């Protein structure tokens, strides 16, 4: 990118005021078409609809520009239809808003629509527009059966609409720049022809000197990868905004960071990582105007500052826009990658009027957001204290392994038919002489960020496998041990080989080991997770999908991956007595597991009523305080192992 597009809207209007763009002649590059193709394939799969399309409208006809590669999709790429026949998409373009038709056959306004000839009776579509508000076309979903698309699916379609329109902004800006350069070149040629040779040489020397100075100045103030302003430029611009802000305005500083971005570079390579950063910068630039400034200040960290009215609604609007930019999956090469993000917000004049201090406070708030797994966090009086506490935890965690402060507790799995203990989940515990007992949710994420999770994970594997092997020998029968696995452990290309070596070392059969993974792990890197799961199952190791039912796409993961066990999240079990919806969902999850020949575990069982319910629904295993709390290995032996020996 030779020029920076991170300028406000009024500057853009002045720069290109005399240039008219024929958007119909703008060519969409193949790499962008490939990204759109991946978006449609993902949309069709998530929504379970046979056709997902991007349509492009021309003067007299409308074209299937990109079509999902799904079974039962009758629309082929580059198919065209003339306008004026009342097509679904033509109506969306004319109205400029969403069109949702669950069943055209039941709708007198649509029961003669031309698309019915292709069997498509359900439709949901949104308009796609260029930055000058002219129509590009639509993005839509169609089905050959009645389909009342849910609000979550329509929201997903809207997020993809935003991502594609961000691409159109980039193409439009490039077309303007190209046309502007052509006009400049014509003027230079005309002037050069009129001037004498000596004058031409002088002008050339001045142009070269100006170009060199401009290039040096540009690289001092802008990020070469994304073209966005850098940290120095950000501080200067924020300082200027703070000087000019009046009492009726508020300045919000949003510090945005992509979580675990190093793993993207490690898994896919730096070229893919750079492409993701470039795509995100283009999305963010879509919101740049005279009151909004966007910068990339380091690695996968961006800052957005905006002067606006004091109303909280204005702040929330900006936060939601930025989060939508991050939440939309990134289609790069043959991959569709979802990256979690965290954001911290500081505001002037409430949190200060110094640029560096505001940036530091927004960064501290982002650190808190990363630590608690939230999408965003505002700086407040507790933020700095929380950061200090995190630093304290981190300093003690560094030596926790060497000082033998980490240990494992074991919670039994109960066979609901026989009432026998058939295994246990190994749960990590940390007791520090100064901090006391530290809950896992306070230090696991911290260990993942500072890299300690690999050593801690190996400690858990060695300890739990050795203990399980001992109990198998004492019982003279197989004893299942379940262990939670971190995403960083699975990113090791030799992870399955490492597990195989440990099983050999401790003489434990692979079928006695069950590794628990979460939906969050699958969302971060589906390609890597699929390969790791396949290799582990080939060894005979069981894979459990933990916290099932809490994520919006859990069902799609059952289709993509081969699991052995479903673990119903405790949030459903805890409300069985009082919430009819949770009872029905629990029944449905157990039924799904049975249908797919999966073992189903209900965790968090604490009452006899809950036990009776899951037993009546023929759930396989139970886990919870009703059967036994997490206890030490010695206590577990006395309470469960020795009893079964007799």
TrEMBL record:
One Pfam family assigned to this protein is GAF_2
What residue stretches are annotated with the GGDEF domain? 249-382
- Looking at the UniProt entry, the stretches that span the membrane are none
PROSITE patterns to which the protein is assigned, alphabetical: EAL, GGDEF
Stored CDD domains: EAL (cd01948), GGDEF (cd01949)
Q: Give the EAL domain ranges.
A: 390-644
Q: What is this protein called?
A: GGDEF domain-containing protein
What organism does this protein naturally occur in?
A: Shewanella septentrionalis
- Lineage of producing organism: Bacteria, Pseudomonadati, Pseudomonadota, Gammaproteobacteria, Alteromonadales
């Amino acid at each position: 990118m030779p020029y920076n597009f991170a300028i406000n809207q009024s500057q853009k209007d002045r720069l290109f005021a005399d240039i008219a763009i024929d958007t119909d002649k703008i060519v969409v590059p193949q790499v962008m078409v490939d990204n759109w193709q991946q978006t449609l394939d993902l949309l069709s799969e998530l929504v379970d609809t046979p056709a997902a399309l991007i349509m492009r409208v021309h003067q007299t006809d409308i074209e299937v520009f990109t079509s999902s590669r799904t079974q039962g999709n009758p629309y082929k790429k580059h198919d065209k239809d003339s306008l004026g026949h009342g097509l679904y998409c033509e109506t969306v373009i004319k109205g400029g808003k969403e069109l949702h038709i669950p069943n055209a056959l039941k709708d007198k306004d649509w029961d003669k629509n031309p698309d019915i000839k292709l069997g498509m009776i359900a439709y949901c579509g949104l308009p796609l527009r260029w930055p000058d508000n002219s129509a590009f076309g639509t993005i839509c979903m169609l089905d050959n059966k009645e389909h009342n698309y849910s609000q979550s699916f329509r929201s997903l379609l809207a997020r993809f609409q935003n991502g594609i329109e961000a691409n159109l902004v980039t193409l439009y800006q490039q077309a303007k720049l190209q046309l502007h350069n052509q006009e400049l070149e014509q003027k230079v040629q005309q002037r050069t022809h009129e001037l004498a040779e000596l004058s031409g040489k002088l002008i050339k020397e001045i142009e070269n000197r100006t170009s060199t100075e401009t290039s040096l100045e540009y690289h001092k103030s802008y990020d070469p990868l994304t073209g966005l302003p850098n940290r120095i430029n950000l501080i200067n611009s924020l300082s200027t905004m703070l000087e000019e802000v009046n009492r009726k305005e508020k300045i919000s500083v949003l510090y945005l960071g992509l979580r675990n971005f190093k793993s993207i570079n490690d898994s896919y390579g730096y070229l893919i990582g750079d492409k993701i950063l470039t795509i995100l910068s283009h999305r963010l630039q879509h919101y740049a105007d005279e009151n909004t400034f966007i910068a990339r200040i380091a690695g996968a960290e961006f800052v957005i500052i905006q002067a606006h009215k004091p109303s909280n609604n204005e702040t929330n609007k900006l936060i939601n826009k930025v989060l939508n930019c991050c939440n939309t999956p990134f289609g790069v090469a043959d991959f569709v990658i979802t990256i979690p993000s965290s954001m911290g917000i500081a505001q002037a004049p409430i949190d200060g009027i110094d640029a560096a201090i505001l940036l530091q406070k927004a960064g501290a708030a982002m650190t808190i957001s990363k630590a608690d797994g939230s999408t965003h966090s505002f700086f407040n009086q507790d933020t700095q204290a929380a950061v200090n506490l995190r630093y304290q935890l981190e300093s003690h965690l560094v030596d926790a392994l060497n000082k033998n402060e980490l240990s494992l507790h074991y919670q039994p799995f109960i066979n609901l038919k026989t009432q026998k203990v058939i295994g246990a989940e190994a749960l990590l515990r940390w007791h520090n002489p100064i901090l006391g007992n530290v809950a896992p949710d306070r230090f696991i994420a911290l260990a993942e960020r500072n890299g300690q999770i690999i050593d801690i994970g190996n400690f858990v594997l060695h300890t739990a496998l050795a203990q399980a092997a001992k109990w198998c020998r004492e019982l003279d029968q197989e004893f299942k041990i379940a262990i939670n696995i971190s995403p960083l452990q699975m990113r090791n290309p030799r992870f399955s080989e490492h597990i195989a070596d440990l099983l050999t070392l401790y003489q434990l059969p692979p079928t006695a080991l069950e590794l628990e993974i979460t939906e969050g792990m699958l969302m971060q890197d589906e390609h890597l997770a699929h390969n790791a799961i396949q290799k582990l199952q080939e060894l005979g190791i069981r894979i459990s999908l933990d916290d099932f039912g809490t994520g919006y796409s859990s069902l799609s993961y059952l289709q993509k991956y081969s699991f052995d066990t479903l673990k119903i999240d405790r949030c459903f079990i805890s409300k069985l007595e009082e919430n009819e919806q949770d009872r029905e969902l629990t029944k449905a999850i157990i039924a799904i597991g049975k249908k797919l020949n999966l073992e189903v575990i209900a965790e968090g069982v604490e009452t006899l009523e809950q036990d009776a319910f899951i037993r009546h629904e023929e759930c396989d295993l139970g886990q919870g305080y009703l059967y036994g709390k997490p206890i030490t290995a010695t206590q577990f032996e006395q309470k469960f192992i020795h009893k079964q020996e007799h």
